[in-house]
From TrEMBL:
<keyword id="KW-0067">ATP-binding</keyword>
<keyword id="KW-0812">Transmembrane</keyword>
<keyword id="KW-0547">Nucleotide-binding</keyword>
<dbReference type="InterPro" id="IPR003439">
    <property type="entry name" value="ABC_transporter-like_ATP-bd"/>
</dbReference>
<dbReference type="InterPro" id="IPR047651">
    <property type="entry name" value="ABC2_perm_RbbA"/>
</dbReference>
<dbReference type="GO" id="GO:0016020">
    <property type="term" value="C:membrane"/>
</dbReference>
<keyword id="KW-1133">Transmembrane helix</keyword>
<feature type="transmembrane region" description="Helical">
    <location>
        <begin position="558"/>
        <end position="579"/>
    </location>
</feature>
<dbReference type="InterPro" id="IPR027417">
    <property type="entry name" value="P-loop_NTPase"/>
</dbReference>
<dbReference type="GO" id="GO:0140359">
    <property type="term" value="F:ABC-type transporter activity"/>
</dbReference>
<dbReference type="GO" id="GO:0016887">
    <property type="term" value="F:ATP hydrolysis activity"/>
</dbReference>
<feature type="transmembrane region" description="Helical">
    <location>
        <begin position="716"/>
        <end position="739"/>
    </location>
</feature>
<dbReference type="GO" id="GO:0005524">
    <property type="term" value="F:ATP binding"/>
</dbReference>
<dbReference type="InterPro" id="IPR017871">
    <property type="entry name" value="ABC_transporter-like_CS"/>
</dbReference>
<feature type="transmembrane region" description="Helical">
    <location>
        <begin position="795"/>
        <end position="819"/>
    </location>
</feature>
<feature type="domain" description="ABC transporter">
    <location>
        <begin position="13"/>
        <end position="248"/>
    </location>
</feature>
<dbReference type="InterPro" id="IPR013525">
    <property type="entry name" value="ABC2_TM"/>
</dbReference>
């Protein structure tokens, strides 16, 4: 690397008295720091020391809680300066691809960011082609980002960050988990860019001390405080250390490093030891993806065997197959000479397994965790107290036995996980990246414990890692990439075989050989003169960029697209046919004891109604009871003797009516039907018997229904279901689109790009408005052609009302997120604090916490009036009337 000369220019960032808290956790503690410009500055330290929090404050992605932060000559508390400086800053967040959109292609991801920063089509094409060519991503421009390797995601994130020629590039642990070759290519690319764009400042957070050696200026951090600043050489001289990792350890507080001792590893003496683990052509497939490809190795008893490789290369999958947690697709594996069998409990008791996530029970104390795992491995009850005391003493857990694991520092949790894994005294220990994120002191202490287990207790240790200095401590290692073992042997043998200066260089050489690459570096991108699009208060280009991106993601997401297109149709069919108040096709039978013309006329009058269907007549009460019980008839009617004579004389007549009362409301309706039909028949008989003069009157009033004159359910329910579905599905989809941004981490792009809240919300809303209108036309088609409910009135008026209604519905879906903390809709509003995924979107201070934390409201939020007061349903229901 070529170190750039530090020119006396104003600092790129100045922090004074900066503090940040997350509940009771202190992330930053009164930090005062001037960060030089036009150089590469590294923040070094293990996970949890405040590196990411410091970078987020500098980038403007998080609200400043206490203190002052000046970036590029302005105060980041000032919203106007933050908006103006935003196009001059680029940020790659921690986590490979966290700011990328996995369903979008490589080209579409970069194009999206170029649109946000205001580049026109011609300029976008030039910049994107140059960046993709220089990073080697040009052949993969049409591949979805979710199908890229870790190194390729890393390069794509860099392309997205560099598309607008930033003056300050912020990288939050950009190389964590990627292979050494991708890591080296990444930093060579950064160096080339800095040589061509000399005014660029680069601010990097890293936990790799070897990586930090190449930075111009370092900030060593611990527990939210700055330990020291200066170049790597200055820090080594200041602490009189040979390496940067030793210098960092010597900079730690005395209480934290007093127990530190250098790791001493006695030589491994095989002495014809038996084979503890053996694998032959071990293969694991997930569909068409080959995670582990014909892996072979033999590990003798007592050896420390390392699996070295990047995240996703197959290390964890291999370990799970060896422990029986995953069945192998091909190949065989043996533990202590026995085939790996998940059902073989005796063999599994000889193995201890420690996962990346520390398999501890956070509801139990340290002692209770040890006791529980002792019982799980069937250690005799009388031996458990002594075994727990032994583990506590050996792994230095005596002082924390009554504390819950989640309250412990990462290093102590690591030791507890190791104690849990070995409490049953296994003969083999499988450790899956056990030291990721812990500080160097805890890492060395952990390694010394493993060495003691190997050399003193003859425990075979199989460990996976992506730290080179840890791999050098192993007796033998296997270099793994893309599911394949590239080489195996002692670290020294692998280095000598390649004629390399270090194990990392040897690994890079093996990777290049496997990929068929040369040692020539990729051509750096051609950096034009730094230009930034003019800042606009509102940009249709950015708005439509979000709309286009949302539409592409929706089209490629089968679950959401199916819900968007078919959800309303399916629910319409279910509710249209499933909800019916119609009482029709009632089967009835008559027990006619009169057998006259009048009784037959009464029966014919009833059977002529569309509500009733006549069945064979009844002959007795026994038959009536039997047929009613069997459900053959719903209504039974008894016409008494002399019915016709009494009607002719005007004598009151009583009919017997039996109605099935299984559904009381339906029975009441049937009763009303029978009474109405009987009264209508009596009026008809009376009108025939009376003189015309007696029939005349001043007026005749009859009831007529203007809408739905037949009083049927479908014409009433179907039009009411349409606005209900148009309110439910589009609003739910628009709400999920914002929540999805929060859960995937891409919401950070809102905070670190020039996008405004209105552009973000309206841009995401437009595709769902279009989908809502498509659903509206589908539902109208179902109404007319499937349910036979015709449309009355102006369809244009109804369409315009539906458009207004859907705009309100989708807007409510996104806006109501200010009520919720998480997608499970837990309401949280406490005093002057709001906690929710979309809170920042609706407040004037656009730099809110993207991590879901609470902060004081310094701006007025949404009006207190509920959206339900606007009653948008009335708009649509009244628009279709004629």
């Amino acid at each position: 690397m070529t170190h750039l000369e530090l020119v006396p220019v104003p600092p790129v960032a100045q922090l004074a008295g900066v503090s940040q808290h997350y509940g009771k956790t202190v992330a930053l503690n009164n930090i005062t720091l001037d960060i030089p410009a036009r150089c590469m500055v590294g923040l070094i330290g293990p996970d949890g020391v405040g590196k990411s929090s410091l970078l987020s404050l500098i980038s403007g992605a998080r609200v400043i809680e206490q203190g002052n932060v000046m970036v590029l000559g302005g105060d980041m508390r000032d919203p106007r300066h933050r908006r103006d400086v935003c196009p001059r800053i680029a940020w790659m967040p921690q986590g490979l691809g966290k700011n990328l959109y996995h369903t979008l292609s490589v080209y579409e991801n970069v194009d999206f960011f170029a649109r946000l920063f205001g580049h026109d089509k011609a300029e976008r094409e030039v910049r994107i082609n140059e960046l993709l060519t220089s990073t080697g991503l040009a052949p993969f421009r049409d591949r979805p980002a979710g199908k890229l390797s870790g190194g390729m995601k890393q390069k794509l994130g860099l392309c997205c960050a560099l598309i607008h020629d930033p003056e300050l590039l912020i990288l939050d642990e950009p190389t964590t988990g990627v292979d050494p070759l991708s890591r080296a290519q990444f930093w060579d690319l950064i160096d080339s860019i800095r040589q061509r764009q000399s005014n660029m400042s680069v601010l990097v957070a890293t936990a790799y001390m070897e990586e930090a050696e190449r930075f111009d200026w370092l900030v060593a951090m611990n527990a939210g405080e700055v330990l020291a600043t200066g170049s790597a050489e200055e820090l080594r001289q200041q602490t009189q250390s040979a390496t940067l990792e030793e210098a960092f350890i010597n900079l730690l507080p005395q209480a934290q490093r007093q127990a530190h001792q250098a790791v001493v590893i006695p030589p491994y003496q095989p002495e014809n030891a038996e084979i503890a683990i053996e694998a032959r052509d071990l293969t694991m497939r997930f569909g068409s993806f080959v995670a582990v490809d014909h892996v072979n190795f033999r590990i003798p008893r007592g050896e420390i065997f390392g699996f070295l490789g990047s995240n996703g290369c197959g290390k964890s999958t291999t370990m799970k197959m060896l422990t029986g947690l995953l069945p192998a697709s091909e190949g065989e594996a043996w533990l202590f000479g026995q085939p790996v069998d998940p059902k073989d409990i005796d063999t599994r008791r000889r193995v201890g397994y420690m996962s990346q996530a520390f398999s501890l029970y956070n509801e139990l104390t340290v002692r209770q965790n040890l006791e529980l795992h002792a019982r799980l491995f069937h250690i005799p009850e009388a031996e458990i107290p002594a075994r727990v005391a032994e583990m506590s003493e050996r792994f230095k857990l005596n002082d924390v036995e009554d504390i819950l694991p989640e309250s412990l520092p990462l290093g102590i949790r690591q030791r507890l996980s190791l104690a849990v894994a070995v409490i049953h005294r296994p003969e083999m220990l499988i450790l899956d990246e056990p030291t990721s994120g812990v500080d160097p002191v805890a890492r060395d202490m952990f390694w010394q414990l493993m060495v003691d287990l190997s050399r003193q207790d003859k425990v075979t240790i199989f460990i996976s890692t992506h730290f080179m200095n840890e791999a050098e401590r192993c007796d033998r290692i296997s270099l793994m990439h893309a599911g394949k073992v590239l080489a195996s042997g002692t670290p020294q043998e692998l280095v000598e075989k390649r004629g390399a200066a270090s194990l990392e260089e040897a690994f890079i050489a093996y990777l290049q050989e496997a990929a068929g690459q040369s040692n020539e570096a990729e051509a750096p991108p051609v950096i034009h003169d730094t230009t930034h699009a003019p800042r606009q208060g509102f940009s249709l280009r950015r708005l439509f960029s979000y709309s286009r991106r949302e539409a592409l993601e929706l089209r490629r997401d089968p679950v959401r697209s199916t819900l968007a297109l078919m959800g309303t149709v399916i629910l319409m069919l279910i509710m249209g046919y499933g909800i019916s108040m119609d009482v029709e096709n009632l089967r009835f039978a008559v027990l006619d004891r009169d057998q006259t013309v009048s009784s037959q006329a009464w029966t014919l009058n009833l059977s002529g109604s569309r509500y009733f269907i006549e069945q064979p007549p009844l002959t007795s009460y026994d038959e009536l009871d039997r047929r009613m019980r069997a459900g053959d008839i719903t209504v039974a009617i008894e016409i008494p003797p002399n019915f016709g004579r009494d009607i002719a004389r005007g004598t009151p007549v009583e009919l017997g009516v039996w109605i099935d009362g299984a559904m009381p409301s339906r029975a009441e309706t049937v009763k009303g039907y029978v009474q109405a039909m009987h009264q209508s028949w009596l009026q008809d008989v009376a009108s025939r018997q009376s003189t015309p003069a007696s029939q005349s009157g001043l007026m005749n009033i009859e009831t007529r229904y203007r809408y739905n004159p037949d009083v049927k359910s479908l014409p009433a329910i179907v039009p009411a279901v349409i606005p209900l579905l148009l309110m439910m599905i589009p609003s739910m989809l628009s709400a999920l689109s914002v929540v999805r941004e929060k859960e995937l981490g891409s919401i950070i792009n809102l905070y670190v790009t020039p996008t405004t809240r209105s552009e973000f919300l309206l841009g995401k809303q437009l595709p769902y408005i279009a989908l809502g209108m498509l659903n509206f036309f589908l539902l109208c088609g179902l109404s007319v052609f499937v349910f036979g409910v015709p449309h009355k009135g102006s369809f244009l008026t109804l369409t315009l009302a539906a458009l207004l209604y859907i705009i309100i519905a989708t807007g409510m879906g996104a806006a109501d997120l200010h009520l919720y903390e998480k997608p499970d809709c837990r309401h949280f509003r406490n005093g002057d604090y709001h906690v929710d995924p979309g809170d920042t979107v609706f407040r004037d201070d656009r730099s809110g916490s993207f991590a879901g934390r609470a902060w004081t409201l310094d701006r007025r939020g949404l009006p207190d009036q509920s959206f339900s007061d606007y009653r948008p349903r009335n708009v649509l229901e009244s628009a279709g009337s004629d």
